Structure to design on (151 residues):
């Protein structure tokens, strides 16, 4: 059960890193800063990333192995009493609830990024395009972003 919580947490960490690539102006490959309609005036999904980060911090705390927690009991007759079986299901439930939030935020950001990418490709080169070539971000079915450059 301890490994399941850690695995779910790592999926969420990867999800947040993808979210960062979509919202970070230095990494988003032509998307508006923080996926905002008017960057600088609106915060876009910047606060959503804070929420995802907080959920992951909580997941990391909850992912500490419960099986290593032991308190001697019964006048030290039972000196190793693992707390893993009783507490892990509730901890994993909270980790899973947090995962729904983190993944949901990533999916919202991906949908917003696709909307911007589609509207940008319909309008032609945006303000970040070079005069000699236009670039547009595209996403694969696995969620990876790649750039297509056309002359």
């Amino acid at each position: 059960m301890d490994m399941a919580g850690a695995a779910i947490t790592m999926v969420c960490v990867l999800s947040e890193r993808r979210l960062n690539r979509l919202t970070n102006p230095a990494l988003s490959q032509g998307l508006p800063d923080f996926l905002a309609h008017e960057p600088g005036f609106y915060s876009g999904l910047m606060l959503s990333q804070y929420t995802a980060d907080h959920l992951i911090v909580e997941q990391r705390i909850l992912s500490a192995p419960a099986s290593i927690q032991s308190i001697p009991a019964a006048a030290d007759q039972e000196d190793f009493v693992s707390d893993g079986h009783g507490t892990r299901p509730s901890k994993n439930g909270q980790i899973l609830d947090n995962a729904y939030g983190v993944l949901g935020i990533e999916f919202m950001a991906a949908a917003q990024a696709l909307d911007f990418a589609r509207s940008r490709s319909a309008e032609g080169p945006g303000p970040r395009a070079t005069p000699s070539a236009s670039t547009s971000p595209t996403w694969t079915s696995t969620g990876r972003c790649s750039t297509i450059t056309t002359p």
Notes: The beta strands are 134-139, 145-150.
